[in-house]
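Predict structure. Chain length: 140.
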Amino acid sequence: MNILDTSVILKMIFEEQDTNLALQLIENHITGKEKMAAPELLYYELANVLATKTPLSVKSSSSALAEIFNLEIETYTLGVEEFLSSINISYKYKISVYDASYMILAERLNCNFITADVKLVKKTKDLKFVRLLNDIKVLS
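Prediction complete.
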C-alpha cells in the first residue's frame, strides 16, 4: 500500500510531467497489485484545486472528481492522536498540517507516502517513507 497526495492525482488528471508514473500507480491500484490510500482530506483538496485553481468548467471539474471517486482509493479518518502528530510534524518541518496528515497516515500504516511536491520532499528528507513520484519504481 502507498499513500498518495493530491499532487500525484493531479498529474493523472492533467497529464503533466510524470503522468505515466501516476497512471501506473493507479493502474496497479485498480488491478490490485498495490493498493493506494489517503486521508479523507484528499477529496477536499482535489475538489478545491479543481474548483479554484484550474481553468476547468464546473462540469469538467465535477467529472474529474467523480472519476477519482470511482477509483475507490481507500480513505482514512484521522483521530485526535493523528491530528496532534500532524501538528508536531508541521512545526518540525515547517510544512502544512494538511501535508503532515498524509505523512502521519503513511507512518501509521507503515507504507510510503508518494508526492510530486519536490519542496515537500526536500523539507522532510530525513523521513525515509516520503518519496518523490519521479524517484519511485512502480511495480509492473
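Summary: The domain at 2-77+112-135 is CATH 3.40.50.1010 (Rossmann fold).
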